[in-house]
Amino acid sequence: MLRVKSVRMRCAFRYLFCVFVLILTFISIHLAFISDRYVGVFHNSIQDVFHLKQAHDKHSSRQKLSNLISLSTKIKRYERFSASALTWEQYQNDPSAITGNDLIDKYGRGDPGLPGENGTGVVFQGEERSEAERLIQKYNVNVYASDRIPLNRMVPDARFKGCRGIPYATELPTASIIIPFFDEWPSILLRTLYSLVNRTPRKLLHEIILVDDGSLMPELGKQLDDYLVTHFPQGLVRIIRVPERQGLIQARLMGYRNSTGDVIIFFDSHMEVNIDWLQPLLTEVKADRRTVAMGSLDYIQLDTMEYKFYKDYMTRYGFDWRLVFFETFFRADQVGPRPESTRPGTVMVGAAYAIDRKYFGEMGTYDEGMRVWGGENLEMAWRIWLCGGRLVHAPCSHIGHVARSQPYTFPGGREAVEQYNYKRAVEVWMEDEHKELIYNTFPHMKVAETQPNPTHPS
């Protein structure tokens, strides 16, 4: 009898021991998954969400993104993300400081074979391809691909070879990055933020200001607020919300009025900065505060999210008397002694240029009477020329940009709004002989009415 009891006790002990080992193994694997499986914990949540079958939801990717952001905020319970306990000033002043967010702290140590890593594109087949194409039609960009790509992915070095050895001054102005957005897809917006944090020197990045121009997507409301609070150091990313949509020009101005850095840089919400992108811009502004320095835009393909650039080539911008903005090349006499030398600019794109914050105010900022979108880039270039400024291209500053159709609605139609804005710029900055060149192309623009320009410097 005693022998039987002894055998039973040994079996029970072995059973309990096996259960205990299994529990420890499960916990270890789970913790490893949370902390070390991949530098982008958020990205793993993406993979999980994307494999959920939601056949009843015609817009399942939208729901998945909502679930994704909710999942990412719940990671805080594991105390892996404690960025909110650290201020941006503390992070700037302590080179050894970590944020607690692996997407920042372990940047560059992820799996290079992940989809989209190092700027590669994502191509789908079968049903996934059909879903991706449907969503491209809806959102003008492949959000299906974006959700598969790490939020903190690395990108290829797009600079001229001579840029890589340039020593920049240790004391440069600080920069406020202003990013207006309207219904930007969450993973694209967040990838813009992570590229800025991971590829910008801490000392130079003063703040990032997001201006929500009346977005309607619920994921960009409280869920985005919670994500920013729990994943970035305090004081780095601020969000300003406009209750009613004002348009790009007014949203940029709102960001400018709330900025405090030495230099302001306007961004779109679908960009990824390249290596050492900021120092070349700030170097030009420091040398002459009336210099407006433009980065070189690379291409993020809207259908695959591939980061694409043309090696050893740089685009110059121009316009004609039809006020058509176009890309062209630099003449040999504009290149300078080396490919990486600063080049003269004629006109600018709307984003990715650096300007001294006080000088921007002295010039009168943007024309506040312009509507929605269009023409502000031409008007700003003319304003710089005629207010004693200088516009330049900085070849060593590269920034990826998703070129896609505008998400704005234009009361009265896009052409009417653009020509309204163009006429405001033409009447303020051009002499009569040059006005006629414009009005010969657009006779109806000549008789169109505009409101007085409230920001024309006196």
Automatic annotation (TrEMBL):
Gene3D superfamilies: Spore Coat Polysaccharide Biosynthesis Protein SpsA, Chain A (3.90.550.10). SUPFAM superfamilies: Nucleotide-diphospho-sugar transferases (SSF53448). Residues 344-401 form the Galactosyltransferase C-terminal domain. Pfam families: Glyco_transf_7C, Glycos_transf_2. Keywords: Disulfide bond, Membrane, Transferase, Transmembrane, Transmembrane helix. The chain crosses the membrane at residues 12-33. Residues 176-322 form the Glycosyltransferase 2-like domain. PANTHER family: N-ACETYLGALACTOSAMINYLTRANSFERASE (PTHR11675), POLYPEPTIDE N-ACETYLGALACTOSAMINYLTRANSFERASE 1 (PTHR11675:SF43). This is GLT13-like protein. It comes from Mya arenaria (Soft-shell clam). The lineage of its organism: Eukaryota, Metazoa, Spiralia, Lophotrochozoa, Mollusca.
